[in-house]
Amino acid sequence: MTIELRQLRYFVALADTLHFGRAATQLHITQPPLSRQIAALEDTLGAALFVRSSRQVELTAAGRHFHEHAVRVLAALDGAVRSTQATARGERGVLRVGFTMSAAWNVLPALIRRYGDAFPAAEIQLSEVVPRELDEALLSGRADVGIAFPWQRPDGLEYLRVHAEPLWAVLPAGHPLAAAAVVAVGELADEPFITFPAATAPALHALVAGCCREHGFEPRIRLETHLQQTIVNLVAEGLGVSLVPRSMSRMQLAGAVFRPISSPRVIEQGVIWAPNNANPCLARFLDCARAFGEAMAGGD
Amino acid sequence: MTIELRQLRYFVALADTLHFGRAATQLHITQPPLSRQIAALEDTLGAALFVRSSRQVELTAAGRHFHEHAVRVLAALDGAVRSTQATARGERGVLRVGFTMSAAWNVLPALIRRYGDAFPAAEIQLSEVVPRELDEALLSGRADVGIAFPWQRPDGLEYLRVHAEPLWAVLPAGHPLAAAAVVAVGELADEPFITFPAATAPALHALVAGCCREHGFEPRIRLETHLQQTIVNLVAEGLGVSLVPRSMSRMQLAGAVFRPISSPRVIEQGVIWAPNNANPCLARFLDCARAFGEAMAGGD
DNA sequence: GTCATCGATACGCCTTGAGTATCAATTAAA
DNA sequence: TTTAATTGATACTCAAGGCGTATCGATGAC
Question: pLDDT category, B143, cuts 50, 70, 90?
Fold first, then answer.
């Protein structure tokens, strides 16, 4: 004979009420099956749990001891069921986020905060990767979702735009072109450029380079860094000019001036994932990403 | 639908093997009922626990999570069963021992040590009581067993002799009677006595007084103390004489001399308990007490 | 002494779990 | 490409076991 949960539930009800009739009512059964299950439990344990007289029921020492543990076992199982359901819904678990520093600087903190607030029981594992590694990490399952620019992405990966904004020119404050309301890209042909490295930010690098080529020149690159804040700092020091996402103008750095450009270019950031990834947390994160994207689009 | 332990056991077996056929064999059932029970479990949880293809079975995130907890729940229940059985056998639990200091000085430490060694999982609660309170404590269930002299005990209490030894006289080393191999009790008539208080050691007090009266005198009591070691100390200081259990002679106190007496009196100590006490630890303690009593009788 | 309460027992019904046979899907081998 | 083997799911049947009704026996209360 083996113990069943029914017997534990019946036992706990009886131990709580110490009355077969009332315990049975509480369990939505009649008294005889309760008597039988308790007897079967005692038989399985090989120990008396109750002392019954036809006038009162009380626990034995073994019964008191078993009661403590039975309550804990039932509570543990209940907790396991709840947390498993939460895991299945993606409300808890582990989400591995891969990001490229150049792409994630703007979106990552806000999106992670939103997700973390919505699902505090989910564990987020962030890891910085270079763009070409991101695809492989997502396809192999080493990462669940990436935050990146929409670079040439291989089959088997989905992309969702979360944020988009125009490129603006950033110039030293004393620069002649800073006087104009709009910067004509062609006039930057002779300026030294401070850009993103092609290796770690191919999309942004290609966008800037493409914009220049369209105006008939190849940008003369003096410095490269994948930290956008550093680019602005270097421009403010008078070391060159650059094209950066407009939102960088929030930096309000003395010595750097932001201006829209004559031929608008939009740079976007989004999330990338493998649709066959079964991690339930991914679905919840994508919900957040969609809502975040809509909020950004609406608020822009 | 409610979860049953059968489903947990089946689930753990399947999660361990990741193969319906082998898990079923291991569970001593066939494969179809295993499939059905797992499906029922998933249905109850409202979450998929396995991803099945006809070629391989693997756990989902929720399945891995549930597996951890299911293993713990089953282990907890197993532990609860074992410890409950141990409790029923009296191998663990709480045993409340009441003792009178005058009676327990000799038997208590050895008996408690023997019991504690035999049942290390049992908790022993010692409390000193005066003799008249011991009976009441045992009858009311406030104590499980007492260690005492066999005083007039009320109905409803059982007594088992554990130790018995003769009373010997203890005299100051320079006392004239100390020269004799055996002390005639009648010659102590004029000596000041150091005795046990009648209130806290009625049996011992009555035994000494009765012995004196049989020899035609009432002992002249100079000092009373219920600590037998103190009695010997006071005798060694020359403050009087006393009749004490022979084993006190082990004290080897300079200035005190022990001698057998002309009319031997036996003082015994034993354990007292209420036979309707259902504490399983009591039965094990009484086993120890019996064995201890036989060992003492045999070694004496 | 009678009646009420309460847990145990007897008996019948029916739910449900297990076994057999088989299907459907996938993969390996010919 | 076809065939065979493996594996989990499903259909059907049987039987064990859980539950409900009726009743018993013991214990207290009035």
Answer: very high
- Which ranges of chain B would DSSP assign to H, the alpha helix? 5-17, 20-26, 31-45, 61-88, 101-118, 131-140, 202-214, 228-236, 280-299
Residues A259 and A116 placed together within one structural domain of the fold = no
Quick check: B79 and A69 CB within 8 A?
yes
CB count within 10 Å of CB B252 equals 7
- pLDDT tens, B178-230? 888 999 998 998 899 999 888 878 888 888 999 999 898 999 988 888 788 88
Residues B114, B74 share a domain:
no
End-to-end CA distance of chain B: 68
Query: Across the interface, do A87 and B65 touch by the CB < 8 Å criterion?
Result: yes
A262 and A176 together in one domain: yes
CA nearest neighbour of A281 among A159, A115, A127, A105: A115
Tens digits of residue pLDDT in A112-146: 999 999 999 999 999 988 887 888 899 888 999 99
Domain membership of residue A81 as a residue range: 5-89
Per the CB < 8 Å rule, is B87 touching A65?
A: yes
In a shared domain, residues B25 and B114: no
Q: Rg of chain B's alpha carbons, rounded to an integer?
A: 32
The per-residue pLDDT for B64 is: 94
Measured between CB atoms, which of B45, B73, B84 is closest to A47?
A: B84
Nearest CA in chain B to A87: B62
CB-CB contact of A242 with A261 (8 Å): no
Is residue A65 within 8 Å of B93, Cβ to Cβ?
yes
Q: Which amino acid is at A159?
A: Y
Q: Give pTM, 2 decimals.
A: 0.80
- What is the pLDDT averaged over residues B78-97? 95
Let me know: does A195 contact A221? Beta carbons within 8 Å. yes
Q: Is the predicted pLDDT of residue A300 greater than 70, yes or no?
A: no
Residue of B77, B85, B89, B123 to mutate when probing chain A, most A C-beta within 10 A: B77
- Whether A50 and A192 map to the same domain: the answer is no
Contact of B95 with B125, CB cutoff 8 Å? yes
